[in-house]
Amino acid sequence: MQSARADAAARLADMGLPGRRDEYWRWTNPAPFMAEAVPEAGAFRADTPIFADMPKVRLVFTDGVFDAAASDDPRLAGVEIARLADAPQWAGAFYGSLEASGQAPVRRPFAALNTARASDGVMLRVTGRAARPVHISYRQSSDTSEAILHHCVKLEEGAELTLLETGTAAARANLVLEVDVGAGARFHHIRPQGRSHGHRVYSAIFARISAGALFKSFTLSMNGRLTRNEAMIEIVGDNALAHIAGAALGDGADGDFHHDDTVFITHGAEGGESRQVFKKVLRHGATGIFQGKILVQPGAQKTDGYQISQALMLDDLCQFLAKPELEIYADDVKCSHGSTTGAIDETALFYLRSRGVPREEAVSLLVLSFLADAIAEIDDEAIAAEILARLQDWLARHRG
Amino acid sequence: MLEIKNLHVKLQEEEKVILKGVNLHVGAGQVHAIMGPNGSGKSTLSYVLSGREGYEVTAGSATLLGQDLLALDPEERAAAGLFLAFQYPVEIPGVGNMVFLRTALNAQRKARNEPEVSAGEFLKLVREKAKTLKIDAEMLKRPVNVGFSGGEKKRNEILQMAVLEPRMCVLDETDSGLDVDAMKLVADGVNALRDAGRSFLVITHYQRLLDHIAPDVVHIMADGRIIRTGGPDLALEVEKNGYADLLAGVL
């Protein structure tokens, strides 16, 4: 573990912190992630608890520190659960390894910084089919807290786990998740990021997906001054599947809203399927960014790569900047990408209103309609219903 | 029921005048048909009545049960009892048919200070209405109009009408794109809703729909005006001779 941290520190020293001239930081200013002082951000108290009645093993982090008293008994059949500080042998070897390999071809300095300095995290080794989801629940008590958390998940062959990650870790947070999905294993990740309006969060997912395995990650972001969600996913075994989706809603009237999804999917094996579905609902001067890449390596034949990024602007003051990229070195592949920016469809709005639905409620229904494709990426119906309820809460608070 | 007086309408963005003084009185329980060639202003009339944006009323009035329709938002018109069956029903992916219909019904009831309908009551109500329209339960679960055939979309419009129970129903070319069997189903649905307290304004190009939905009064519209009004025979006359003779006498 110490050597992994030292290696990461060396990587970071070598690459340096990003600046606005970096290709992948042109649209998002990295300075707030580096500033000495942590800007104030209160906990997001408007939220009703999510996944409250769902069976799960809850692991609570308060201001970035594991809170054993608030957590459930961390024993779950088929899953070994440990803290970063008590990392078992497998984790010692695994920690930082996917982050290190994920540094090429694009540098991820904040992820290296995380590996070097993370103060806590969860190490999960999944050997069977987990009977319940593991729920990492972030709580915040201090308005100026900072958290650097690093989680590792290793799914052995044929294992299955649903990981829920909710709340905001701190006023400023840097969260890294490394996931190794073994052959035939299945990993579901659902991450509703409830934020107050001052939060600044950098997150990075590094995933390696083996033959016949499934990886699905869905993120819901609401509010937050500055969010950068990165995902570096590498398909290394044949016939594997990787889906990553995000729904973001931001209202600039609550304070600045700047939301950036940066995704890099590498197909390094045959018959892989990847999907990127990212939707952003913007109003009152909110800004949305999407940078998504599909790299198909030589020999990764029969790859099916799909990418869509869309913004729904509820007024004329917002902006959405998208950069879809395809880089293909195999000749028998199917890859497509699309990006759209639009306003509420007036015909659909009139249709709903003509049936008696008031304008604001009709707009909310059309927002949900817009986000439906992203939410459809959640396989578990009960989880999807909770995400939908959370969305409806947000929409009810942001009418008019 | 519906009283339209000297209605003049132009496009908001252009100088183009579409309705040039429409007068129409639809009594309670009556079915009126409006026929007319393309571009005569039939669909515009339906949009203006239901409050679609993009039109400017420059003169005249339209009232429903004595209420000034033109002063109301589209949702208020619906709550007041107006319903427009669309020529092209809109697809809304991701919003379930049931969610949509229950939201609409309860919004209308709320606007009228009536108690909202519970999920259980609503389910019972919709199932009952759907059965008579031969709409299967699977269709109710799907997103609004997504993947529906032309006939299913129009039947879905009639289902909405049956659930929302409006007083004044405007059918905008409901027969377009329907085969004979689908048209018959839609007409049966409409006929089942006919009663002394509900009126219909059926806009159509062709007489064939009126074989199934028998009108009390037939109007011929041309160049933004109603140029002739008569009984059901007038529709047969149009079917036989076309609009040319009628128009020649007026324009």
Could you give a quick summary of the protein structure above?
The complex is a heterodimer of chains A (400) and B (251). By secondary structure, chain A is an alpha/beta fold.
Structural description of this entry:
- The complex is a heterodimer of chains A (400) and B (251).
- Chain A is of the alpha/beta class.
- Chain A has helices at residues 2-15, 31-34, 89-94, 97-101, 109-117, 346-354, 359-375, 381-397; strands at 57-62, 65-66, 79-83, 122-126, 134-139, 146-155, 160-166, 172-181, 186-194, 200-209, 214-222, 226-235, 241-251, 258-267, 273-283, 287-296, 304-313, 319-328, 334-342.
- Chain A has a 10-stranded mixed sheet, covered by helices on one side.
- In chain A, α1 (2-15) runs antiparallel to α5, α6 crosses α7 (359-375) and α7 packs antiparallel against α8 (381-397).
- The model of chain A has no long low-confidence stretch (mean pLDDT 94).
- Chain B is 40% helix and 28% strand.
- With 251 residues, chain B is α/β, with parallel strands linked by helices.
- Chain B has one domain (2-250): P-loop containing nucleotide triphosphate hydrolases (Rossmann fold).
- In chain B, α2 (74-80) packs across α3.
- In chain B, strands 6-9-10-3-11-12 form a 6-stranded mixed sheet, sandwiched between helices.
- In chain B, β9 (168-172), α7 (180-193) and β10 form a beta-alpha-beta unit.
- The two termini of chain B are 30 Å apart.
- Chain B has helices spanning 42-50, 74-80, 97-111, 119-132, 137-141, 150-164, 180-193, 208-212, 232-241, 244-250; strands spanning 2-11, 17-26, 31-35, 55-64, 67-68, 82-85, 92-96, 143-144, 168-172, 199-204, 217-222, 225-230.
- At the A-B interface, α6 and α7 of A face α2, β7 and α3 of B.
